[in-house]
Amino acid sequence: MKMKHSKTDYLTGCGILPKWHDKTLDQFTNDPVALETIKTYLKDPPKFLRKGVGLYLYGANGVGKTHLLATSFMQLIDAGYKCRIISPSTLIQLHVDSWYNNERRAYFKEMIYRNHFLAIEDFNTEFRSSKGDNSDGANENLGITALDNLLRVRSQLNLPTWVTSNLKPSEVKTKYSENIASLLKEMTVQCQVMGKDYRETILKQNKNELRD
Fold it and tell me: d(Cα 194, Cα 208) in Å, to the nearest integer?
């Protein structure tokens, strides 16, 4: 793949942060079943691209969902596919900006329409106001509308969308909407990621280094 900028810049522009650039999929050791699911998907990306099917990676915090996502997308990029990872807050901001700015509208449409593989990382609380608090109801509705729009368009275009979340698929209907739950059920294969909390391990390592 020819790139105008360095690979680091390119990956960062795709939403893959530098901490993942030197990582590989095989360095993930937390959940062999989840890892095998990812590897099976990556053996034949054209098949899933034709079907418009992505993965819904869900599990507790710190089990390695982002590791699986980032390293998988780096493999897809190396294979020549256009990929992008976005956060829910970025999705909402782009959705709002597209109403008033032609350049941002074009960028938003490009992101939705042109990426072979698109991922929404860590969606859940960013879209929702706290229970019993309606002060953020407008932002909550914006988040649901933006997500519904993105999923609906990519479903119609038959383009795969990945999701990472600590939200179980069975909880999507309650937390978001029946439409979003239905779209995700149609567009993704569910993959639970289990295991230890990597962040706890890193915390212990950092503490040990301070004691040395």
Answer: 26
CB-CB contact of 123 with 179 (8 Å): no
Name residues whose C-beta falls within 8 Å of residue 31's C-beta, 6 or more positions apart in sequence.
59, 63, 64, 193, 194, 195
pLDDT band at 143 (very low <50, low <70, confident <90, very high): confident
Query: Hey, how many other C-beta atoms are within 10 angstroms of the C-beta on 169?
Result: 17
Contact yes or no for 15/175 (Cβ under 8 A)? no
Residue whose token pair is 């706890």: 200
Phi/psi at 134 (nearest 5 deg)?
Answer: -95, 5
pLDDT (average), residues 74-102: 91
Amino acid at 4: K
Euclidean distance between CA atoms 150 and 152, whole angstroms: 6
**Token code pair at residue 130:** 């706290």
Q: Has residue 205 got a pLDDT over 80? A: no
- Cα 164 from Cα 26, distance rounded (Å): 19
**Cβ-contact 68, 193 below 8 angstroms:** yes
Q: Which two tokens stand for residue 191?
A: 């993959």
SS3 127: helix
